[in-house]
Design goal:
The protein is α+β, with helices and mostly antiparallel strands. The chain has eight helices and 15 strands. Strands 11-9-10-13-14 form a five-stranded mixed β-sheet, with helices on one face. A two-stranded antiparallel sheet has the order 1-2. Strands 3-4 form a two-stranded antiparallel ribbon. A hairpin with a 5-residue loop joins strand 7 and strand 8. Helix 2 crosses helix 3. The longest helix is centred in the middle third of the chain and has 51 residues. It starts with 17 loop residues before the first strand and ends in an 8-residue tail after the last helix.
């Protein structure tokens, strides 16, 4: 049975809405509780005697601070409007911040995610560079084939040749390109070349992974990027008689239809050249016809694509080869002997060149 006051009525705080000052608090249950319909009736009475602002203010404080703050010895505390407003202001103006431990945990999680994602992003970027390089080589080879189609099957001239020992040009004209990649930032050597009319984009002459810059003759680096990364194979030259010395020392094909050994699918046309090795526009390598079994790099292929290099072939396709040994230029403008562990890479490249006059 519910407790009654001396006057025979239930206490004000049990089962009915209570008031304090100008704030009417919701009805509180007695020990036995009350019926659901009674609860609804009492709450309707509470709403009828309170403004919407007072009701929202009360329940926002209860939600933030928890119901337990209003309980004492099984009854509800009666809060004045001023106290309710103060509690609401304190709860709303000071939101809970991160603790130091939580902040460190978040930072650690971000660091772990970064360590997992960055290598994947780096590999994706490298694959994008490789795809761009292969596309450039295919475009250049297409231009090379179109030139032959327009000139009675005669291949583009390839006579931009420098002495490997001195760096001096042996032949300065009669070439698909006269740009000196190391020093020349002027695109005229490419734009006046014989392949440029077939594709007027300068971008296809440079590997997207090549970040090298031009330099002065004394080796001082300049900030301007180079504009060419590719050389044409010494085995293809539509004007070999331009220079009798090179024609004697270097076997080459003059016409596209003459290519037989190696076959077009194996004969190299354009090669991505190492940034510390590129100079003229011809990629040279010792041939068995004159140099026998000399194992030396004259021009060194690139090492940009995840320890690899991109090549194009006379049939128009392009490939990326991965090296067994990283390619490093030890000394500029000098032949570089091939160590035993690098011979498989060297022989693979050499097999893509014409070896004998026939």
């Amino acid at each position: 049975m519910a407790k009654t006051a001396k006057n025979g009525r239930r206490p004000l705080h049990e089962g009915r809405a209570t008031t304090h000052g100008s704030v009417l608090l919701p009805p509180q249950p007695n020990q036995r509780g009350y019926h659901r319909t009674d609860r609804a009736r009492l709450y309707n009475k509470f709403l009828a005697h309170s403004s919407l602002a007072e009701y929202c203010l009360y329940w926002s404080v209860v939600k933030r601070r928890g119901n337990s703050m209003f309980r004492e010895r099984g009854t509800w505390l009666v809060a004045s409007q001023a106290r309710a407003q103060a509690e609401y202001a304190r709860a709303g103006s000071h939101p809970r911040a991160f603790t130091l431990i939580e902040l460190l945990v978040v930072i650690a999680i971000i660091a772990v995610l970064a360590s997992l994602l960055l290598p994947a992003l780096s590999k994706a970027k490298a694959r994008g560079y490789t795809a761009g390089c292969l596309n450039n080589l295919k475009q250049l080879t297409l231009c090379w084939q179109l030139y032959a189609g327009d000139n009675d099957d005669v291949l583009p001239p390839n006579n931009s040749i420098a002495d490997i020992y001195t760096g001096q040009l042996l032949a300065a004209g009669g070439s698909w390109c006269t740009n000196i990649a190391r020093y020349d930032a002027d695109p005229a050597g490419i734009e006046n070349g014989l392949l440029f009319p077939y594709n007027r984009s300068l971008g296809i002459y440079k590997c997207p992974a090549d970040k090298s810059t031009i330099e002065t003759c004394d080796g001082t680096k300049l900030p301007q990027p180079r504009i060419r990364s590719y050389n044409m194979s010494q085995s293809v030259n539509g004007w070999p008689e331009f220079n009798w010395l090179t024609a004697t020392l270097i076997p080459s094909y003059k016409k596209l239809s003459d290519i037989k050994e190696p076959v077009p699918a194996q004969l190299l046309v354009f090669i991505d050249v190492h940034e510390d090795s590129i100079f003229d526009a011809l990629f040279g390598i010792p041939t068995k016809a004159y140099w026998g079994h000399v194992n030396e790099w004259w021009d060194i292929p690139a090492n940009r694509h995840n320890q690899g290099c991109c090549f194009s072939f006379a049939d128009g396709h392009a490939e990326r080869w991965r090296w067994r040994v990283p390619k490093v230029v030890k000394e500029k403008f000098k032949p570089q002997s091939v160590p035993e562990e690098e011979l498989p890479d060297f022989k693979r490249v050499q097999a893509g060149f014409k070896q004998y006059h026939n």
